[in-house]
Amino acid sequence: MKNNDRYWDCLDQAMEASHGGRTDEALAWLEEALRAHPDGAEAHNGRGEILWDEGRTEEALYEFETSLKADPKFITAHLNRAELLVEDMGEYEQAVALCDELLGGQTELPRLDKGSEGEVYYLKAKAVFYLDDLEGALFLTRRAMKTAGEVPVYRAFDGQILFELGRFEDARRSLETATVLDPESGHALYHLALVLERVGEAEGAERAFEAANALDPQQYPLPVSVDGEFFRRVVSDAIDNLPRSIREYVEDVPVLVEDYPSEDLMGDESVSPQILGIYIGTPRTEAGPTHQPTDVTRVILFKKNLEKICRDRDELIDQIQITLRHEIGHHLGLSEEDMERLGLA
Predict the structure, then answer these.
(1) How crowded is residue 179: how many other Cβ atoms within 10 Å of its Cβ?
(2) Which pLDDT score, from 0 to 100, does residue 291 have?
(3) Which residue of 37, 71, 155, 252 could cross-link 41, Cys pair, CB 3.0 to 4.6 Å?
């Protein structure tokens, strides 16, 4: 009983230190808790959360799994493990499998309340989204909201998926709702800005970009805005900077500049509204002597999308060159490894 009291006292001290930003002290209290109770699921989970915040993902995953060995019904560790796999480790299929286990109602696993069930649906939706199943992600996000109610982050993700599907007006409605539910959601504001930009509301988009940037400048940098002449000059320089052995093969391939992909292009090519560039045509390695192209062979660079992922003009110049070379590589039928070897990646 004495050790049990000591365990919970240490956990309280660890939580207080963690909330105060004193992570080393929090870890020390968690070590003390584990000396009192080596199989303490809560202490292992707490260590995992701190290690995750410090970017030590493998160690964090080990702590979450150790927590679950101690208590397979501890839902917080289940959710942390699934989220870590999705957000930081890219193990999307594993995350989907874990979510399915939790939703399956196995007796050895925790019984989910409405909030936890909604969170599992949401985490599965994110994993499915990253596996490029947008419709599946949308269905699961709707299930999360039906189960747990109007959670702001779920509504914002609903809007993000609708944006990626090119359903801009639907996305706008979801994202506006999300910003009402949580006015300080940088994620919702940024994606609302993307939508407003696409529906032609430039001033509203600018305000939303600025609001997201004010909340989190690192995550949501302001777009680098340059005039069309500057952008086209950089593209021309990027073409001139191609290796001589490559230039002769692409002299007949026009490089076009558009603000962002049209809805027709997104539908025909199944590409994201945020794509940086695209090669349209048949790679040289696949075009035989009797090949008749069904469309005009070309490379298109998307100015607004390239501007949004860069923090200054120098970064934009570099990214234009990287994107152009990548699309030229597709025309030449090169693999990613070939592109790196030839300096096109």
Answers:
(1) 23
(2) 46
(3) 71
Alpha helices in 20-89 (DSSP H): 23-36, 41-53, 57-70, 75-87
Report the largest interatomic distance among the alpha carbons of the chain, rounded to a whole angstrom. Answer: 85
Element (H, E) at 277: strand 277-280
Q: Which two tokens stand for residue 115?
A: 């909030």
User: Taking the model in full, what pTM does it have?
Assistant: 0.90
Q: Which two tokens stand for residue 325?
A: 């070379």
Percent helix / strand / coil, the chain, rounded to 5: 65, 5, 30
Among 239, 263, 223, CA closest to 323 = 239
Q: CB–CB of 12/32 below 8 Å?
A: no
Helices 92-103 & 75-87 angle (0-180, nearest 10)? 150
Beta-carbon contacts of 315 under 8 Å, excluding residues fewer than 6 positions away, are: 224
Task: List residues bridging with 256 in a β-sheet.
Answer: 300
Residue written as token pair 């599992």: 120
**Residue range(s) occupied by CATH 3.30.2010.20 in the chain:** 228-341
Tell me what pLDDT residue 288 has. Answer: 47
Q: Which residues of the chain have pLDDT under 50?
A: 1, 288, 290-292
Q: Which DSSP symbol is given to 275?
A: -
CA distance 124 to 116: 12
* Calpha distance 298→285 (Å, rounded): 16
Q: Which fold has domain 228-341?
A: Zincin-like (3.30.2010)
Identify the three-state secondary structure at position 73.
coil
Three-state DSSP at 246 gives helix
Q: What angle do CA 194, 197, 201 make, to 5 degrees?
A: 135
Candidates 293, 277, 287; CA nearest to 344 is 277
CATH of domain 150-222: 1.25.40.10
292 exposure class (CB count in 10 Å sphere: 0-12, 13-18, 19+): exposed
User: In 3-state terms, what secondary structure has residue 12?
Assistant: helix
Q: Any idea what DSSP says for residue 326? A: H
How far apart, in whole angstroms, are the C-alpha atoms of residue 26 and residue 3? Answer: 19
Strand ranges (DSSP E) for the chain?
Answer: 255-258, 277-280, 298-302
11: Cα separation from own chain's centroid: 33
